[in-house]
Structure formats: structure tokens, C-alpha cells
Design brief:
The structure holds 2 protein chains of 2 kinds. Helices cover about 30% and strands about 25% of the residues of chain A. Chain A is α/β, with parallel strands linked by helices. In chain A, the strands form 2 sheets. Chain A has a 6-stranded mixed β-sheet, sandwiched between helices. A 3-stranded antiparallel β-sheet of chain A has the order 1-9-8. In chain A, helix 2 packs across helix 3 (about 60-65). Chain B has one domain (about 20-45, about 60-125). In chain B, helix 3 (about 100-110) runs antiparallel to helix 4 (about 110-120). Chain B is about 35% helix and about 20% strand. Chain B has 5 helices and 6 strands. Chain B starts with 14 loop residues before the first helix and ends with a helix. Classes of the chains: A alpha/beta, B alpha+beta. The interface between A and B is medium-sized, with 32 and 30 residues.
């Protein structure tokens, strides 16, 4: 049994009740992640890259990707304030968890779960570039380019997503659904009901 | 010590524009509000009879952004203007954000109230 079947077989699963349909299956995600890992392994031979991910959406992708990479790598995580009510009052995005590893002179591969407007990625890449790595490239699993405001070169891309509100495999809606093993389209009524129920 | 001059906040026509500007500010992206009008049609005397003024210009991206909360059926006129801009000013980059795209953007940024206020309920959207 694969993990997606486990979810579908659970008839009392409240999260599945809020999913309209599966858009990218767990199997397809796993296959694509393996392909990305193989490409990265080929391109970075002898470079000992640092893979950097931004919490929290990247957790599932990062965990699977690093196990599909067959060369020596190092991993680090970064976190910035989201556009929450509190952060909005403070006015500007800020880093809430910095890297632990120095990246000056290192080959950095920034790993991202989804790129939408490009605003977050642009901020993070600029912040990392200021530390003068030897190179910096982007690997993204899901690209939603309909909303793109800031174009950034993407070296490794998993899937292009249409303009649906999707969740799962790290993508959340109000911190829920990250643990779905697939990417699903949320039922429209869930989008606005969360405020009343949660 | 002289203080840096504060940016004068423009008077936004629609609340979605103000919300969009706040998001850009949060991520430190430079923007201008309605800085340029593009003439689209002229009469026989050369007078401009139709023009288009995109809502935002992002100078670092050299990108104009137009936001619309009109229902899909009513966006036709705006789409026609954008096609005309591309014909007359092929060097100009304009991106149109439609109702559903804006709603999803607001929701992604956790702005449920803004999304609700501007777009109404999901049931209304099915009209």
C-alpha cells in the first residue's frame, strides 16, 4: 500500500472531506522528485552544495529531495515572517530563523516548494546573494507563474500548477493540509469557512 | 539630521489596490501608482478618444500591473485594451490580475477578510 491509498482508505479522514480532487498524485510527485535529485546529483558532482530551504512549506519536498541526491551535500533552513496580521503591522518582511551554515564561497541550491508571485523568493535570494556564495540556483517543485511579479531564473522545476488554490505536500491553508502526501485542490467553500471555524 | 522624505500615499480607487500596495511594501518592492497613460485610439483630429492607465508600475521589474475584480463576463473590455496595448506598445510589459487570481493571492497572503470583502462568497462567484 502506498501512502496515498492509506489516506483514501480512511473514510473518517476530515482533511480528505475538504479536498475537491487530487491534482498531482503522491506517485507522480515521488517520480519527479527522483528525477530532480538525479539531475542535481549530475550537475553538482564535486561541488558539495548547500541546499537551503525556507520553512515550513518546503519540509516534505526537502526531505524527499535530499534522499534522491546521491552526492555529498549539506542542508540548512531559513524562515521569514509571513504576511500575517502581526507581521503586517510591523511593516516589513524579516528573517525569523537565519542559516546556521556560512555560505560564502559555497555553491547554494535554494529549494522551494512553490513559487507564486516571486516576492518571497526574491527577498530570500537577495538575502543569500549578499553573503557572496560561489553560485546560487533555484529548485522549485511547483511553479504557479500566473501570479508572477518578479521573474527569477529557475534551474530545476517539478510541475507547473494552474491557478487553483492547492494544498498538500507541504502547502498549507491556515497551517492545515501540509501532511497530505499529494497535492489537492481545496473545495471552494473551505476557503472562506476557515475563518468562522478556525 | 534631515529625515528622508516620506513617500506620499496615493489615493487608491479600489481597496484591492491598497491591499496590493501593502504586500509590495512588505516585501520591499518599489512601485508607482498609475504613473503612465497609454493612448489607444485617436479621432480624425488626433485627439485621444480611448486610453489605458495600468494601476501599478514596478520599475525594478519594468512591469505594469492591472488589477480587476470584475466578474469574468465583464473583463472582455479590459482584455481588448490589453491586446491593443500589446499591438501599439510591444515593448511594454503589462500583467493583468483577474478576480480569481487576486482572490487566491489574497488568500495565500492570509488576507481572508480582504478576499471576502472584495469578492463576496464562493456561492456568489458561481454566478
Amino acid at each position: 500500500m502506498i501512502v496515498e491509498d492509506l489516506w483514501k482508505a480512511d473514510k473518517n479522514n476530515v482533511l480528505m472531506d475538504e479536498i475537491q480532487s487530487v491534482y498531482v498524485s503522491a506517485e507522480n510527485i515521488q517520480q519527479r522528485v527522483i528525477e530532480l535529485g538525479q539531475a542535481i546529483s549530475r550537475d553538482y558532482v564535486g561541488k558539495n552544495p548547500v541546499l537551503v530551504g525556507a520553512l515550513k512549506g518546503v519540509l516534505c519536498f526537502m526531505a524527499d529531495l535530499i534522499r534522491a541526491i546521491t552526492i555529498p551535500i549539506e542542508v540548512d533552513l531559513i524562515a521569514i515572517s509571513s504576511y500575517s496580521q502581526e507581521a503586517r503591522q510591523k511593516g516589513l518582511v524579516r528573517m525569523v530563523k537565519d542559516l546556521d551554515l556560512p555560505i560564502t564561497g559555497r555553491h547554494v541550491l535554494f529549494v522551494e516548494d512553490v513559487i507564486d508571485t516571486g516576492l518571497t523568493l526574491n527577498y530570500l535570494i537577495n538575502s543569500l546573494r549578499a553573503r557572496q556564495p560561489a553560485s546560487i540556483e533555484v529548485c522549485v517543485l511547483f511553479d504557479k507563474n500566473q501570479h508572477r511579479l518578479i521573474d527569477l531564473p529557475i534551474r530545476y522545476k517539478g510541475f507547473e500548477l494552474p491557478d487553483y488554490f492547492v494544498v498538500g505536500y507541504g502547502l498549507d491553508y491556515h497551517e492545515r493540509f501540509r501532511n497530505l502526501p499529494f497535492v489537492g485542490i481545496l473545495k471552494p467553500e473551505v476557503l472562506f469557512n476557515r475563518r468562522q471555524s478556525g | 539630521m534631515d529625515e528622508a522624505p516620506k513617500k506620499v500615499q496615493p489615493v487608491f480607487i479600489h481597496p484591492i489596490e491598497e491591499a496590493f500596495a501593502r504586500i509590495l511594501n512588505f516585501y520591499g518592492v518599489e512601485w508607482q501608482y498609475e504613473p503612465r497613460t497609454f493612448p489607444l485610439e485617436w479621432d480624425e483630429n488626433g485627439n485621444v478618444i480611448e486610453a489605458f492607465k495600468p494601476d501599478f508600475y514596478l520599475p525594478q521589474q519594468d512591469l505594469y500591473v492591472e488589477l480587476t475584480t470584475l466578474r469574468p463576463k465583464l473583463v472582455r473590455h479590459k482584455n481588448r485594451k490589453l491586446r491593443r496595448i500589446k499591438e501599439l506598445y510591444p515593448e511594454v510589459n503589462v500583467k493583468l490580475f483577474k478576480r480569481r487570481e487576486l482572490r487566491n493571492m489574497m488568500l495565500r497572503f492570509g488576507m481572508i477578510e480582504e478576499a471576502e470583502r472584495i469578492f463576496g462568497t464562493a456561492a456568489q462567484e458561481k454566478d
